[in-house]
Amino acid sequence: MNTDTLFAAGLFAVVSSVTPGPNNTMLMASGVNFGFRRAQPHLWGVNLGFTFMVLCVGLGLHSVLDRFPQFYDLLRYAGSAYMLWIAWKLANARPAPAADHDDGNTPPTIQPMGFWAAAAFQWVNPKAWVMAVTCMSAYLPANAGMAQVALLAGLFMVLGAPCSAFWVGFGQAMRGLLQDPMRLRIFNVTMALALVASLYPMLTS
User: For a designed S-S bond to 149, which of 4, 58, 123, 128 qualifies (C-beta 3.0 to 4.6 A apart)?
Assistant: First the structure.
């Protein structure tokens, strides 16, 4: 793989990783609702889960999906249902009570998405599929071996992690502005609507 191809792949990784999508919407919401430290499992689940997905696509998973399009349809509709459920939870989330005001009887707030849940989410995330398939189709040389597939996957991990961290950090920076429960509720509902809107390209393709 020559330097020009590697540079183009790196540019694609940065642009596609930093632009809005389901992952970044949810990561920003995690930063707002839980702070940067508590959002770390979510952050690394996204990055390592997507890296594994890129590896699988590069090693031939995409050709399997081409042969069995029904499996892709199953993933598409299952992913839609899961994202609607996440959007519903986010829209109905309430601020976590302060320790001295929690009477133990109020219903629990939303919890940060864990590492494994975030990694599994990549398989039902339409933007993740587009990124992985486009990367391998456009930048992987013909008859490439495992080393070149791993290089492209590693490129996404190294360049994608700071992009994801930016969204969590942006959410963390907004926490002061959103301390008011009504503002936080408006933010969460807006993020939930953004998740629902992101389903449109997947369901109409």
Answer: 58
